[in-house]
Write a structure and sequence with these properties.
The protein contains six helices and three strands, in the order E-H-E-H-H-H-H-E-H. It is mostly helical and 158 residues long. The longest helix is centred in the first third of the chain and has 24 residues.
Length: 158
């Protein structure tokens, strides 16, 4: 494709707590996470009004409706990072319940996908750390497979 003009690309990481879980707590970062429910519709309105196209790289865990669906969606092979705190799976197993506002948002993903000019992409299933020691290609492929499977279940293709 040859263009006679520049192209401004908007790509947003859409993560909620999954993107900061290894560095922050809900207690200290929760207000920012709660704001997502207001900010995303506001951004979609601005994007629609100004014909701005964007790709939203969504962590696959966000597609889940609740903890039960999340646990049923685990990849066949989990990451074995040398730093086990990077993997969300112990956090998920150890949590009696995961509050929806911090962990799940299938409704916002649906709203993004429904708007012209917006694309939902994948930011892996678990906010995967590709460069961390201990993980391997098979674990990464399993993570991506879970992200694709979850998106497909919501009518989206990755």
């Amino acid at each position: 494709m040859s263009l006679d003009y520049g192209v401004f690309t908007v790509s947003l990481d859409f993560e909620l707590y999954w993107g900061v879980r290894d560095r922050r707590t809900i207690g200290t970062y929760g207000e920012n996470l709660r704001g997502v429910q207001r900010v995303v519709p506001d951004l979609l309105r601005v994007f629609r009004n100004h014909d701005i196209h964007a790709t939203w790289a969504a962590v696959g865990l966000l597609f889940c409706k609740n903890s039960a669906e999340l646990k049923a969606s685990f990849p066949e092979s989990l990451p074995t990072y040398e730093n086990p705190g990077l993997s969300p799976y112990d956090y998920i197993r150890d949590s009696a319940s995961l509050e929806k506002i911090y962990h799940f948002t299938p409704e916002l993903i649906k709203a993004i996908a429904a708007q012209k000019g917006q694309e939902v992409g994948t930011h892996t299933f678990s906010h995967y750390y590709c460069l961390e020691n201990g993980q391997n290609v098979a674990q990464f492929e399993a993570d991506l497979h879970s992200a694709i499977k979850m998106a497909n279940a919501r009518g989206l293709s990755m």
